[in-house]
Design goal:
It is a single chain. Helices cover about 10% and strands about 25% of the residues. A six-stranded antiparallel barrel has the order 1-2-5-4-3-6. Strands 7-8 form a two-stranded antiparallel ribbon. It is mostly beta strands. The longest helix is centred in the last third of the chain and has 11 residues.
Length: about 160
């Protein structure tokens, strides 16, 4: 969330209202210091609500300039002190269960069509020495001795 910010020093700025929970130590901020000075990425060291009811923030890096116009705070963690709500899909309150997409199924090639990638058919018991062929069937691999026998038989 972009918030209007007021420059205090090279390491401090303030935002309107009580936003101390949004500016916890360790959280990163993106500070827009205008076209002349650009964007600065800084780490929060501390924050407090001052006497005017505004949140005063200190950063580790001394890079802020008087051209500061706004800040955007980033995620420090999950939960109430972080910038990211708990969202683990463990219940409907947390986004609901996520359904896994149905996997594509492998299909074999034919003389006229290419096959498709996907999950392969499971081999049956006793197929441990077979290989998956391009037509999506399990078969014994051709051995060199079989090739020689066919060559002699058919005079290839």
């Amino acid at each position: 969330m972009n918030l209007q910010a007021t420059y205090i020093s090279a390491t401090e700025f303030k935002v309107a209202g009580d936003r101390e929970d949004n500016f916890s130590p360790g959280r990163r901020v993106k500070a827009n210091c205008g076209t002349a000075d650009g964007v600065k990425y800084l780490t929060i060291s501390s924050s407090f609500v001052n006497g005017d009811g505004d949140t005063q923030v200190s950063v580790l890096e001394a890079e802020l300039t008087e051209n500061l116009t706004e800040v955007l705070f980033g995620v420090v963690g999950v939960g109430s002190r972080g910038g990211l709500p708990v969202h683990d899909h463990s219940s409907n309150d947390q986004g609901g269960p996520v359904a896994a997409p149905e996997p594509e199924v492998f299909s074999g090639a034919t003389i006229g069509e290419a096959g498709t990638k996907g999950t392969v058919p499971a081999p049956a018991a006793g197929d441990e020495k077979k290989v998956l062929q391009g037509d999506a069937t399990w078969a014994r691999p051709v051995r060199a001795s079989d090739i020689r026998r066919y060559a002699l038989l058919y005079s290839i």
